Amino acid sequence: MDEPQVVKIIVVGESYAGKTSLLQQYCFNEFDHNHSATIGCDFTLKWITKNGTKLKLQIWDVAGQERFQNLSKMFIRQAKGCLIMCDITNKKSLEAALSWRNVVKDIADEVPIFLIQNKTDLLQGEREEYQTEEYLNQFAQQHNFTRSYQISVKLNDKVDLIFYELVESMIEKGVIKLEDSIIKSSFVIKNDNNDRNKAKKKECC
């Protein structure tokens, strides 16, 4: 049995942005209203198969408190992808995402970084400008985030999607490689060449 490829993903952001809830929802389909802030760092595992390649997602929940910042930097090393979480009801949470982006970029510059606004289920009535999808997309482009999404962890809205897209982005950037895809690509090219040779022989006859 082939060992799965370990893929380290970090989830960072201010406290109470929904990082722990995101992991619980994605990995266990659970949502707990009453959990305390993460102390230090913790991780959860999720096994997936992508194009025939087994991947073990090691998803790290990194504490948002300032006193854990040096510890957080240590856990960012060797990450293949990053989700930066914000609370859509708190503008300062979005602004703090820039500080986290800079921290991640300094340590793991090549990895895709997604900007995630959580808690859309709490929005009522007309949205503030910073709560609109258009504003988030412009903000993300301006500050060089790979992609941006508005989600609700509580309602399980777009939770699976952001991890699916993050894995896709990691493959596109080459930070993880699918060996089976490489083999299949080579096989297709080889067959294509054989077909061309056969066609030439038929033409010669």
TrEMBL record:
InterPro entries assigned: Rab, Small_GTP-bd, Small_GTPase
Keyword Nucleotide-binding set for record: yes
Record bears the keyword Cell cycle: no
Example GO molecular function: GTPase activity
Domain of life: Eukaryota
Keywords per UniProt: GTP-binding, Nucleotide-binding
Matching Pfam families: Ras
PANTHER family: RAS-RELATED PROTEIN RAB (PTHR47977)
Name of the featured protein: Uncharacterized protein
Lineage, highest ranks first: Eukaryota, Sar, Alveolata, Ciliophora, Intramacronucleata
